[in-house]
Specification:
alpha+beta, 9 helices, Deoxyribonuclease I, Chain A, five-stranded mixed beta sheet, globular, 346 residues, nine-stranded mixed beta sheet
């Protein structure tokens, strides 16, 4: 459902979800009762009526969008036709409790569509909770977005299963919902092009991400099987399960030392690449394969990997680049770099 504003969930209801039973069956009941998980918020205004035959597209996990000024500057420097965003907060204490996407779209002269990945029942991770001074979330929404300098037609939302089980007590960041994708179409010359912003689960297995990919591609074919497609976002191609990567850090570093290219060339370990290839999608021409897309925190000894990707079908990709996510003072604006590519229909 397209709406001008996502349906608000009162803080009393959010707190009751957080403080009540935290099991999978309860999560399903809560998720079914949150209208915003099925809504797409539409806003902003496109600055142009149409695009050229070629589209410049960016994809970026903007880590809450809290550093809006720097992120807007990086995006504006590329003058993209379309921007595919993930990890966008709305009404979250950790990012100032504002509608950051609306401000970004106004700054760029773009229309926007926004879909909710999670209704956040807490105020973030330990660092974010410590920094927000005890403020409550105004809305608690966190999700994916598309901004577009040209009209965005027929927006659609694809929900994945809640494979990360974020609602369970042991995960520390209670959330209702699950990963998702948000799409729509723009005109490139006289051709419709389907554009999709996606965020796959990090707290699952490579096979779990493959299942999410199959579900996404089936949904795209049902939406429009004929139009060329560009999918971009954070695929979390981390090549192993969450416990394998985190329970024994020394063992994980040993595995990486034995296969030093596994994080930059994850296709041997992540079956979603084979699924994409079987379904006619390519990634080799659309990505700067020699550049990592992660920004490691100070003290993290794990090498940065390539976990953000573009995949294309029926498009010719050129000039892929990975842009540093930095503020003017050199500090990070996100924990992911930004991707950009130019595409045109075959």
């Amino acid at each position: 459902m397209l709406v001008p504003q996502l349906t608000h969930v009162p803080v009393s209801a959010r707190n009751a979800m957080r403080d009540g039973p935290r099991d999978s069956a309860t999560h399903l009941r809560h998720a079914a009762a949150v209208p915003a998980l099925g809504e797409i918020e539409i806003g902003g205004q496109p600055s142009r009526e149409s695009a050229r035959e070629s589209l410049t597209v960016m994809a970026w996990n903007v880590e809450r969008l809290r550093h809006l000024d720097a992120i807007a500057g990086t995006i504006a420097g590329q003058t993209p036709d379309v921007v595919l965003l993930s990890e966008v907060d709305k009404g979250m204490a950790r990012s100032g409790n504002g509608h950051l996407l609306g401000r970004l779209a106004d700054r760029l002269g773009h229309a926007f569509a926004y879909g909710v990945e999670f209704l956040e029942l807490g105020t973030g991770n330990d660092t974010e909770q410590a920094a927000n001074g005890g403020a409550e979330n105004a809305e608690g929404f966190h999700g994916n977005a598309i901004t577009s300098a040209v009209p965005l037609m027929r927006p659609f939302l694809v929900r994945f299963d809640a494979a990360g089980a974020w609602f369970l007590p042991e995960h520390g960041q209670p959330r209702i919902g699950g990963r998702m994708a948000l799409g729509g179409q723009v005109m490139a010359g006289d051709r419709r092009v389907t554009v999709v912003s996606v965020h796959l689960e990090n707290r699952t297995t490579p096979a779990g991400r493959a299942d999410q990919t199959r579900h996404l591609l089936d949904a795209i074919d049902k939406y429009d099987a004929e139009a060329p497609v560009l999918i971009g976002g954070d695929f979390n191609t981390l090549t192993a399960t969450y416990p394998e990567r985190n329970d024994d850090p020394a063992a994980w570093l040993g595995r990486i030392a034995a296969e030093p290219d596994r994080l930059m060339r994850p296709d041997r370990h992540e079956p979603l690449f084979a699924i994409m290839a079987e379904r006619g999608y390519d990634w080799r021409d659309a990505n700067a394969l020699d550049k990592p897309t992660q920004r490691r925190a100070s003290g993290d000894l794990t090498p940065a990997g390539h976990i953000d990707w573009f995949f294309t079908r029926g498009l010719i990709a050129s000039a892929p680049a990975t842009l540093p996510a930095v503020k003017p003072d050199g500090s990070p604006s996100s924990d992911h770099e930004a991707l950009v590519v130019t595409v045109r229909a075959r």
